[in-house]
Protein: Piso0_004534 protein
Amino acid sequence: MDPEQHLKGYVSTIPLTIEDKETGDIIKRSTLFVLSKHTNAVDDNSISIKLTTIIEEGTYCKEINDENYLESRRRGTYDNESWCRVLKYMFPDVGQLPASKAGLTLSARLPSLSQYYSRVDKRLLDLEDITSVSDILTIYVNTSDRIPITEGVLEIPYVDLNTESEDAANAELNLFHWMGLLSKQNEALLSELSKRQQESRALREEANAYKSQLDLSLQRHQDIVNDIQSKMYLVLNAKKARINELEDMIAHGSKSGFGVPQSRRVPDNSQGTEKSDSGDPRSATASSSAVGSPVASPGKPIVSSPNRQPDPSEPEGGIRPQLGTKRMYPDAAKIDSEDSPNDTDISESSAGPANEEDNTNSPASDSTFIEESSHSES
Structure:
């Protein structure tokens, strides 16, 4: 037979301390079984909980409803709605999780007298007279701090089941009904625990898989970094070796007194150009350009290159009037002084025939010819 047909609700346990009412000494410590059943709740903000506690000393019952639930609150930590939710959570209904709220605990105390208990095993001796002493059972809602603070107090009175109906008394006091209900709750808890364990195992396996992927990605990343670093080191070492080589070349040239070796230009009389003794065609081209262009020296006329195209502005015969070198090329002396000795020799040697031709066709010769013609006519 289903125990819920006779006993409905949720059974929880609360630590119980029995104290001597006269001396305040602790007689014994025990466990209080509490049956909580939610009934006739209008909405979430409404409360209707029936509490039934059973211990060796007797049965205590109380109904918590909207009219008296605020009487149990002792401090202003929780407002009305919050305190209603706290009581519902601490005394759950059937099918709910065990009563455990973070930061809050339940404890119970029962006043009594030491003379009603055995001195050997603290077993209750007289049950008839104890009801007059232990008529109120108190349940405390405390914080879980090292020094607990009481947030609420529930006073549950003693109930004489002889005055109740026979069916109600049998349902409330039948030990087998309580055991059956507890067994069913344990089965539900074990099923929930097994389900949570499977979920935890699946999450753990998934976490291990993610961890393996993360380790693999980390290893690949480290391999890429090491490869890039090794390639960078190779490039840097090659550049460093090249820099050292160039520094050695510069240092060798400085010790020789010539600096960095440069190509020298020598004239090639057969072609009218210059060629480099270093064999570099670029040096030869530069030398050729230098020889083919007019060369200006202090005190000497500008000499045209034999390969230069005639200028239409020049007089017939390709002879240009001689002008001062400093006037047309004020920096010619500076340029000539900065040029190498070989270039100066080449310019002078190239300009030799041209100067002779210029001397032959100079304006002085023309003026002499004009003067002789005048004398002959006269």
Remarks:
- Residues 293-377 form one domain.
